[in-house]
Amino acid sequence: MKIANKKAVFFDLDHTLWDFEKNSALAFEELLPKFGIAVDAAQFNALFSPINVKYWKLFRDGEITQAQLRYGRLKDVFTAIDYDVDDEMIAKTSQEYVRLLPTNNHLYEGAIEILEYLKPNYSLHIITNGFHEVQALKMKSANIDHYFKTITNSEMAGCKKPDPAIFEFALTAANAQKSHSIMIGDCIEADVQGALDCGIDAIYFNEHHLETQPQITQVNHLLELKKLL
């Protein structure tokens, strides 16, 4: 069933449109040999992924800084694989990872098609907890920046999803009303519940078919949005 009366669609970026896992793996494939780190890149990325999620939750909750996030997630991976590396190398590795990550441009299957489908009938926007410079580079590398009228990040808003203030900031930037807006993202807490608590309807991008509350509107593939919007 179509969701009626919507004019503005707000997307999360990482893990929703931009394929973080694939792009992250490519970054480590290039980075690790460059620094002479004799570790299998696929194994490294497999460990990095859940650790990164943990650190981003800590950052989202205001418990750590950006610097602590970028250092801690790599430190924990090296510890997990029992690889001896000093703080200077971790700092260099982190800096290079942040530089390489947004140069990769893989999107989720159907991302371009759904943006092309939505653009004639909706104004499209991004709300991300990511950092401005990195997120802008990701969107430019993937050639999707031109689809979006506004991009709200946590730095400009001064807060992070699920704080209602970042949604209010994005609505103001987009000149959009809550009743005419909808949020699409992969994180129940930050994207979906955050939007709902602010009075904005939401769709959960449930790529991994995780169990969730039945009343939450969800899709498992981006092209399923055509049935809703």
From TrEMBL:
<dbReference type="Pfam" id="PF00702">
    <property type="entry name" value="Hydrolase"/>
</dbReference>
<protein>
    <submittedName>
        <fullName>Haloacid dehalogenase</fullName>
    </submittedName>
</protein>
<dbReference type="InterPro" id="IPR011951">
    <property type="entry name" value="HAD-SF_hydro_IA_YjjG/PynA"/>
</dbReference>
<dbReference type="InterPro" id="IPR023198">
    <property type="entry name" value="PGP-like_dom2"/>
</dbReference>
<dbReference type="InterPro" id="IPR006439">
    <property type="entry name" value="HAD-SF_hydro_IA"/>
</dbReference>
<dbReference type="InterPro" id="IPR052550">
    <property type="entry name" value="Pyrimidine_5'-ntase_YjjG"/>
</dbReference>
<dbReference type="InterPro" id="IPR036412">
    <property type="entry name" value="HAD-like_sf"/>
</dbReference>
<dbReference type="GO" id="GO:0008253">
    <property type="term" value="F:5'-nucleotidase activity"/>
</dbReference>
<dbReference type="InterPro" id="IPR023214">
    <property type="entry name" value="HAD_sf"/>
</dbReference>
